[in-house]
Design a protein that fits this description.
The chain is of the alpha/beta class. The protein has two domains: about 5-120, no CATH class; about 125-240, Restriction Endonuclease, CATH 3.40.91.80. About 60% of the residues lie in helices and about 10% in strands. The protein has a six-stranded mixed sheet. Helix 1 packs parallel to helix 5 (about 85-120). It is elongated, with a radius of gyration of 21 Å. About 30% of the residues are buried. The mean pLDDT is about 90.
């Protein structure tokens, strides 16, 4: 078997032993609910805590599964390849694991937010193609098609770097655009550019008060997003029989 075939087989066997994000999310959410509470009011009052704790818990669970799967597939592989060159195979294998871990972490935040929005009975459509593909359209794609300026567009990116620019085209006709992140390294220059594009950055409350973010009006906590933006929109949509 060629080195490339060995890499593919090794990674496939490894991946097959790791639960998918939905399974990890359910397990993580149960643990966090046992710690922080499980009612809608519990979540709304401490939305930041639920986001941060669930993300960390899911990551910890994943790393345990990753270690167990790695031990199992490597023990088998090393036994079969005794005395043969394996460095390049292992190097590529560990690189694939690192890339997969990053991809999972990026999607996990979206899944966590979607789960919390559902538990709080907030209406949304997810991953719909409008002008781009934002994670959440509130209250619905149908209402966006009819009255875009009355909608909220909400997207999640665990780390921003320069990727926030790609969201500018995603639903820019909406009444407001909100970008949720756990990134604590966004610069004041980037935040200023977002402000010009009418983008709010939504972060856990601890990040808002403990970093330079506290001086930026378009950086808000998850709790502020609910109280100042989403809840008033919910009241408006109900008043006009939209939801």
């Amino acid at each position: 078997m060629s080195k490339q075939a060995d890499i593919v087989t090794l990674f496939e066997e490894f991946s097959g032993k790791i639960p998918d994000n939905n399974e990890l999310g359910i397990e993580g959410a149960k643990l966090v609910a046992a710690k922080l509470g499980a009612t809608v009011e519990d979540i709304r009052k401490n939305f930041s805590g639920f986001v941060s704790d669930t993300e960390k818990t899911i990551y910890d669970i994943y790393r345990l599964h990753e270690e167990e799967a790695g031990d199992a597939v490597l023990a088998k592989f090393l036994a079969a390849k005794s005395g043969k060159p394996i460095y390049r195979v292992l190097d590529a294998f560990f690189l694939s694991i690192a890339q997969s871990r990053k991809a999972r972490a990026g999607k996990a935040l979206e899944a966590i937010l979607g789960g919390l929005f559902k538990q709080c009975n907030y209406p949304f459509d997810q991953n719909r193609v409008i002008n781009g593909k934002p994670d959440f359209i509130m209250p619905s794609e149908e209402h966006f098609r009819a009255h875009a300026a009355d909608c909220i567009i909400f997207t999640a990116k665990r780390k921003l770097r320069e990727r926030w620019r790609q969201i500018v085209t995603e639903g820019t006709q909406g009444a407001a655009f909100f970008l949720a992140t756990l990134d604590d390294e966004v610069t004041t220059e980037q935040i200023g550019e977002m402000r010009k594009k009418k983008i709010y950055m939504v972060v856990p409350a601890t990040l808002k008060v403990s970093t330079v973010y506290k001086h930026e009006p378009n950086v808000i906590s998850f709790e502020d997003f609910l109280a100042d933006h989403l809840d008033p929109a919910i009241a408006r949509w109900k008043k006009h029989n939209i939801i």
